[in-house]
Design a protein that fits this description.
The protein is mainly beta and 86 residues long. Helix content is 0%, strand content 44%. The protein contains no helices and seven strands.
């Protein structure tokens, strides 16, 4: 379901165990946001992936996905996969 009002970016996440979605976006019309996903890695918790959403001065909107742990890229199915051991 798409939200009715969206500024530059919007986040909608489903999390197992939660009754409602996590939703939201920047307040300002030129706002951005960042999201960091953490993952258990060999007994510790480590940042695995960062998503940066920014509004450029030329009016362009940019989404950057920054892997923070080693990743593998499969050529048959373009998915970024970060694999660690619990």
């Amino acid at each position: 379901m798409c939200p009715r009002t969206v500024r530059n970016f919007w986040l909608s996440a489903r999390i197992e165990g939660r009754k409602s979605r996590l939703v939201g976006g920047p307040r300002g019309k030129d706002g951005g946001m960042s999201l960091t996903l953490y993952q258990r890695s060999e007994g510790s918790v480590a940042p695995a992936l960062e998503i940066l959403c920014s509004s450029r001065s030329d009016g362009a909107l940019l989404v950057e996905v920054v892997p923070l742990l080693p990743l593998e890229i499969r050529t048959k199915c373009p998915v970024l996969r970060i694999k660690t051991r619990r």
